[in-house]
Amino acid sequence: MKTVKVYDITLREIGRSRASALSFKERVEIARTLDRLQVDAVELPALKDGKADVLSNKTIASVVAGPRLSAAVGLTPESVDQTWESVKGASRPALHVMIPASAVQMEYLCHKKAPAMVELTRELVARARYHTERVEFSALDATRAEPAMLRQLLSAALEAGADTVTLCDTAGIMTPDECGRFIRETAENVPGLEKVRLGVELGNAMHMAAACAAAAIDAGAAVVKTAITDLDVPTTEDLAAYLSARGESKGLRWDLRATELSRAAAQLNWLLQTERSSGSPFDSGVSDGAGVVCLTAGDDAGEVVKVVRRLGYDLSEEDNARIYEAFQRIAASKHFVSTRELDAIIATTAMQVPAAYRIASYVITCGSTVSAMAHLALEHNGQRQQGMAAGDGPIDAAFLAIEQIIGHHYELADFQIQTVTEGREAMGSALVKLRSGGKLYSGSGISTDIIGACIRAYISALNKIVYEEA
Fold first, then answer.
1. pLDDT, tens digit, for every residue of 430-442?
2. Average pLDDT value for residue range 246-268
3. What is the helix (H) or strand (E) element at residue 328, kind and residue range?
C-alpha cells in the first residue's frame, strides 16, 4: 500500500502571518497536539524575531517526539545555519527551503532574475544538506511558473540533495483534473523526481483544495500539506474524510490518529480565534510579544525576579533568592527555563510552610451516567474534617469539597496538569495557583493518580495562605 504523508503547516502559517496573536505557551501546546495526532511533519516559520523565535523553536523541538520538525529557512546561507541551530535538538530535525518559481513572485519577493534564483536554490539546499539529510524544497507558485524554469529549479534542488520536493499551487487556481495532469507531467519531465518524496501544497481559493489533493495523490504525490484549522489549504479533517472513505479501495494508508482529530481540531480552532477571551486554558498570563516568557542561564537574579512578578507573585527576598538558586540549577543543563517551569520552581521552592491541612483520605466517583462526586477528609489542628461535593468533573468536585471543609472560596488563578513519566503507572504533576488578598500562592502535587496530584497541589497552596494570614 502507498503511505500518504501529512505535513501540517499550522504553526508555519500562523507564525508567518499572526505570530503576535499566539503566546509562546500556545505555540508549544499546538505542537504537542500535532505530535499526539502523529502527523508526519510539523512545519515552523522562518526566524524573524531573533532570540524569541530561536527559543520558541528550541522549546518545540524538545516536545515534538514523533513527527519530522521542519523549519523554514530564509534566503541567505546564514539563515540556514541559524535555523538549524534552533531545531537540531529535535528527534527528527529538518530544514525547508522555499523559493518562488513564478516570474512575478521572483521579482516581487526576491528582486532576482531566473538564473540567480536557480543558483540561490542550489546554494541554500546544499547548505541545508550539509546539516541534515532531511531537506525539503518547495517551489512556491509552481503552477504559474514557466515549465522550463520550474524544471531548472527542481533539478537544482535535487542535485543539491533535497529529499522532498513540494509543488505549490499558491494561488489555488487549479481544478482537480488540471492538478493531476500537472503533477504527472512534472514528474515525467524532471529526472530524479521519482527518487524523492513528491509533495503538494494546494491553495483553497476556489474551495477545491481537498479535491485537488485527492487528484494529486492519484497522480503520484506522497505528501499533502494540510492545516488543523482553515489556513487556505486542505484541512486535516477534509483529507482524513477522503482517506477514510476511499483509502482502502485505492491502496492508501496513513499514520494519523483519526479518532482524536475532531476533538483536537475543535480545541485548536478555539485557541486560534483572533478574538478570544482571556480565559484560555493555554494562556500563562505572560505573552511573548509583550514581555519575557523564557529565561536563559545568562539572566541574572533581577531578570528572574522581574518574570516572577510578571507571573503575579509578590515574594520575600529570601524566597526570591531560593527561586534564583533553583533556576540556576535547571538553566545550567538547559537552553532556557520557560514560564511553566518557573511556575513549578516557585510552587516547590517558595514559601515552604508547615502543613496546617493534611489529606487523610479521598474518594472520587464519576462516570458517563453519574455526576462527579468527591468525598474528602482533611486533618486540621489534630481534628478530622470531612466534606462532600458534586462538580462538573472529578477535579472540580474535589476542589469544591475542600472549600466546603475550610469554609472559604479562593479564586483559582491557574491550574495545570501534565504527565511526568510514561506508561500505565505514569506519574502526574499538578500546579494550582490560588489568589487571596490580591496575592498569588502556588502549590504543586505529584502522584500516579492525577486527581490525587491536583488535590495535593491545592492543599499545598492552601497551607501557604493559612500560614501567611495566621
1. 889 999 988 889 9
2. 85
3. helix 317-331
Question: Cell triple for residue 186?
Answer: 512534472
Q: What is the pLDDT of residues 210-251, one digit of tens each?
A: 999 999 999 999 999 999 888 889 999 999 999 999 999 999
Strand 337-338 with 294-295, pairing: antiparallel
Q: DSSP labels for 303-317?
A: HHHHHHHHTT----H
Is the Cβ–Cβ distance between 186 and 169 less than 8 Å? no
H or E element, residue 387: strand 383-391
* Cα 413 from Cα 346, distance rounded (Å): 15
H-only helix segments in 70-134: 77-87, 103-105, 114-131
Q: At 362, is the secondary structure helix, strand, or coil? A: strand
Dump pLDDT digits (tens) for 383-420.
999 999 998 889 999 999 999 999 999 999 888 887 65
Q: Contact at 8 Å (CB) between 130 and 95?
A: no
Measured CA distances, 361 to 231, 379, 383, 386, 456 (Å):
50, 9, 13, 9, 11
Is there a contact between 344 and 444 (Cβ–Cβ < 8 Å)? yes
Least Cα distance to 171 among 126, 131, 140 occurs for: 140
> Which has the closest alpha carbon to 137: 157, 109, 116, 114?
157
Tell me the pTM: 0.61
pLDDT computed for residue 283 by the predictor: 37
Total residue length of the chain: 470
If you average pLDDT over residues 114-126, what whole number do you get? 94
Between CA 250 and CA 259, with CA 256 as vertex, the angle to 5 degrees is: 100
Name which of 310, 270, 338, 274 is nearest 52 in CA terms.
338
Q: What is the CB-side half-sphere exposure of residue 419 using CA atoms within 13 A?
A: 8
The CA-based angle 193-101-188, given to 5 degrees, is 25
| pLDDT surpasses 50 at 292 | no
Q: What residues form DSSP beta bridges with 2? A: 252
pLDDT value at position 446? 74
CA distance 44 to 132: 16
Considering the chain, what percentage of its residues have pLDDT values greater than 90? 54
Q: 411-419 and 428-436 as β-strands: parallel, antiparallel, unpaired?
A: antiparallel
CA atoms of 401 and 203, how far apart (whole Å)? 52
